[in-house]
Amino acid sequence: MRSRTWDRYSGYLFVLPYLVLFGLFLVLPLVYGLGISFFRWELLSRIPPKFVGLENFREALGTDYFWKALWATVRFVAMATPLTIGLALTIAVGLNQVKSKWQWAYRAAYFVPTMVTISVAGILWRWFFNSEFGVFNALLSGVGLPTVGWLTDKAWAMPSIVIMTLWWTVGGPTVVLLAGLQNIGPQFLEAASLDGATPWQRFRYVVLPLLRPVLFFVIVMNVIGAFQVFGQTFMITRGGPELTTRSLVQFIYETAFNNYRMGFAASMSWMLFLLIVLLSGAQARLMRER
To answer: Which of 35, 83, 196, 202 is the most buried (most CB within 10 A)?
Structure first.
């Protein structure tokens, strides 16, 4: 009896430290943020917080700055997510074909940039993108091509952020997808080859369907991360030029810690949270149906 009781509850005991930290540092701040989103709370004001109901949410939906920041975020997600997933899948398929003992070195080479802090990566890529003495413009000038205002031209600012993000983040999904590819049994590919399937047909009709759970995980996590983009835009462009790269998280940060409007910032945070939940649910439903 004692052994059965231990087997039943021992799992909860092992996850208890994680659950405690999860509750203290995620659930509790989430609930607290929802609470202050219903208050007009000016952080440095002598006026005490005042309950205003949904007024903060209505104000956010009625301001152009919110919609401009949301549009910049959506643009980033639409550009960065397909490129990241496509490039990660391409690299993972290529690495999976490497049968030598040096495969670990290739994996590490792609994963190392993800270990660089955003402050260091931002400073590095600001030098790359500099219009006057940047590396990229120097290379363009060296081959006789016109230089580009990577961070000052509205047409190039967001693509520049996406390029930097690809370099910085593609290693994570690459490693996950590579693990998924290596878990596909060789008997499936051998059976397809015996049936006369070409390499592309084996990839399209055998590998991709078997990789779908891993691919779904990578897509959802990448979309969630892309909607929370902050460090790249804050470190490289500061939201410019003309706020075309100011993400919603950056706008929330500036509202809370530059303008000290904590209630207003909390309401926008919760709207972003609900948007991410809805999109993640839609992706889960789509993948389940297909």
So the answer is: 202
